[in-house]
């Protein structure tokens, strides 16, 4: 079998990777739901990009499984429809030689026996010497309604005790605390926790993975990382599009379950956790769970909900309820802002604001750590420093820093210490989160996957709020498609979390003395912390 080498295929762009799949054991990856959206857009492209860079195990086969009957050509067409411009045709051909497709139902044992047979056929090709040590990865690119059926059939008809078995599950993991516990118990009855990889793809994003390094490899961050210096933290997710054909899903889950309870809370736990004892996955997950345990359930009065409405005029955008797959009177929130509190000695008194919305003015995911006011009389009324980690787009880390305005001026100005990855690391292409995570699965590394106790805590924090919203049928505030969210989004963050809008440009100058008063009167900038 020929594998493309990184140098051969990736051209000048490297992923900056120093690791391939460690275990060079014969490996079969089974993608359930191989006919679907996630498989097409994320799973197969991620597998391809790993293949293209020589990062898959040397002896690997990929078996797609779904109900839809597909010819090999049709399956290949689907599996490669999202590979992107980097995909050289010889690499695509090589990759497709590793991929086969089996069609079957999700609850029919005979179909799973046929799948097992196909896996064994593939095994013979990659494992002619019949080594007993092998890896099987079962990737559930499926709606949650069939997770359990498929897991049951895998265990009953496909599972091989002699192999290392890994099952990858996509979110949503349940609907609330109770359903999530039920799912965890059901899956737990079939697979041990170390066999389960719950994907939260935000944990595979470059800047989210970078938080640990920034915090614990740089002496100055840890020194100020507490309520002593930090005023508030804002974790923001903005998407510039609405339901886009996913109305049914969005309406069932809403923005809090879709993005906050998982992606944003995972990010929060890494920003807030203590230093882990080591970089071993269980040590990292212990620390995340420890901090989640100290988060108080969110109160309705600390929550702002919104739902987008259409815009009129030429090129107007549809409102949420204009989507045919959304029920007419839906009160599902497509925007939410919540204030959370971590009740431990490090963070008591620091509000954590989560904001998430669809159909907003831009695509952006940021973590904004706002420091307290400068406690000195030399420069009163200054704007606050902020450390901003921009997860997407254009990965960057910058610190909003006050400097003397350059030149003869005595004014101060807000500027930025800016580490923009696209400028600093021009030769490195940041891998997609799914490629990173699938590589972790192949390596058996759980660090960037959600453990069942973390999940339980995440639902404990959000479930009372979600149930109250549903019971009281709280009506979300309207906001226009393409806007910044419902009226009052900034006021809410400043009232509830003491957030001070930071000026893009900040000018400060000393109080005029009699000698300088004439110059001020002639029109220089007034002293203000806010623009
Ligand atoms: N799409 C995305 O961008 C993302 C998806 N996810 C998660 O990944 C998982 C898969 O998502 P996605 O690919 O979008 O889902 P799809 O709706 O595309 O479903 C995947 C496949 O599952 C089968 N399927 C669909 N509905 C049912 C049903 N009701 N009963 C049985 N089988 C069904 C279909 O295959 P067939 O009929 O051929 O069997 C379909 O091709 C979900 O858990 C989702 O939440 C997470 C992040 C992003
Ligand atoms: O899990 C989800 O995430 C996407 C956003 O992911 P991103 O990597 O593009 O930031 C979101 O659109 C989707 O609703 C949600 O299910």
TrEMBL record:
GO terms for cellular component: cytosol. Pathway: Carbohydrate degradation; pentose phosphate pathway; D-ribulose 5-phosphate from D-glucose 6-phosphate (oxidative stage): step 1/3. GO terms for biological process: glucose metabolic process; pentose-phosphate shunt, oxidative branch. Residues 212-496 form the Glucose-6-phosphate dehydrogenase C-terminal domain. Catalyzes the rate-limiting step of the oxidative pentose-phosphate pathway, which represents a route for the dissimilation of carbohydrates besides glycolysis. HAMAP family: G6PD. This is Glucose-6-phosphate 1-dehydrogenase.
